[in-house]
Design goal:
GO terms for molecular function: oxidoreductase activity, acting on the CH-CH group of donors. The chain has 115 residues and is an all-alpha fold. 38% of the residues lie in helices and 0% in strands.
């Protein structure tokens, strides 16, 4: 009779039942059921609340003091041209900030407006 090299303890089945199971197939939900669930999300809550102010055509939060051409050139000259460019990594719009600032410094305003 062949000798058993290793034996699992008796509790191995109990331990294995604790492991989460991987789903082998996708779960299907009807569109109507999914729309009902989405109504419960916070971002999809009722938009017609009486306390909310209408934000359409409301530009009160826009900064009224924008930079002039001279001010933009002065700020572009302050750029350190970092190798790792932390401003590039933190930009939420994924704008190429290094080339943007370089274009401002070179007075290539049309290139800046296109980006």
């Amino acid at each position: 009779m062949a000798r058993v090299l290793s034996r699992d303890p008796v509790d191995i089945e109990n331990i294995l039942t604790l492991n989460p199971r991987k789903q082998m197939h996708a779960t299907l939900h009807s569109t109507a059921a999914k729309k009902q669930v989405k109504k419960q999300w916070k971002r999809n809550s009722d938009k017609s609340c009486p306390n909310c102010e209408k934000l359409e055509n409301n530009f009160d939060d826009i900064k009224h003091t924008t930079l002039s051409e001279r001010g933009a050139l002065r700020e572009a000259m302050r750029c350190l041209k970092c190798a790792d460019a932390p401003c590039q990594k933190s930009c939420p719009t994924n704008l190429d900030i290094k080339s943007f600032i370089t274009s401002i410094a070179n007075k290539a305003i049309i290139i800046v407006m296109k980006s």
